[in-house]
Amino acid sequence: xxxxxxxxxxxxxxxxxxxxxxxxxxxxxxxxxxxxxxxxxxxxxxxxxxxxxxxxxxxxxxxxxxxxxxxxxxxxxxxxxxxxxxxxxxxxxxxxxxxxxxxxxxxxxxxxxxxxxxxxxxxxxxxxxxxxxxxxxxxxxxxxxxxxxxxxxxxxxxxxxxxxxxxxxxxxxxxxxxxxxxxxxxxxxxxxxxxxxxxxxxxxxxxxxxxxxxxxxxxxxxxxxxxxxxxxxxxxxxxxxxxxxxxxxxxxxxxxxxxxxxxxxxxxxxxxxxxxxxxxxxxxxxxxxxxxxxxxxxxxxxxxxxxxxxxxx
Length: 313
Ligand code: BDR
Ligand code: CA
What we know:
The protein is α/β, with parallel strands linked by helices and 313 residues long. It has 13 helices and eleven strands. A nine-stranded mixed beta sheet has the order 3-2-1-4-5-6-11-9-10, with helices on both faces. Strands 7-8 form a two-stranded antiparallel ribbon. Strand 2, helix 2 (42-56) and strand 3 form a beta-alpha-beta unit. The radius of gyration is 18 Å and the shape is globular.
């Protein structure tokens, strides 16, 4: 039976790739896609989620959740990398949504109606998951698992020297989720940074005549340009698609149990993930952390998944 999943996203090119992959994956039943502010504003993230679903038009549409601002606002965004609208500057048109339901409410309703069987794949700041848990303290015990892309274990951050982007955007929420009693998996930068997609990707994309092919061929070229300009890299990271693979193809990853927390107010370290590796750890609330990845097999899975997304028509 397909695994039920809520995708919590701040699209973002790698979020968009993960959505293409997940929506067409027969192993997954995407019951909801909830927007969260991060790479772009909450308003733009909501528009992007809607645009992606309208453009891909999957056989069964998931519920959509609308994003709102984190309590402390957003300290940064990802537009330098992902483009002014988060999708390479494509500015896709969207239909007017009449009944906007807040993301945290959608998460809460889905988990309540189907206890213990839904996985949340959190690919942006943890604002929505923390809010859902706060409004309904029983939820952490009702969610099957939360798989989070974020943080860094041994390597540096990517938005500050210490912090990874998703953690830095809303460290209070990240801390609340880390400290919650839900079962969780973290897929940190140490692992996602290892998977670099080069220009060869374009030879394998679905044809321009397919919905996914047209969409991907519109959003990907600008991000290759910004990776070259910003990082001097002839390729792109697909952090969120790697986190999705950790859910769908767990055998391609090595994991360790760790106890982690998030720094919320350091002068240089806000948003840093800290792991208690003392002989007798004092931190509580374990999580599974991805520490290794079969790079070539994950890349092959991503390519196969994109090809599959092209078969929708
Ligand atoms: C994370 O930050 C965002 O820019 C990406 O979408 C990804 O979720 C990587 O640090
Ligand atoms: Ca993201």
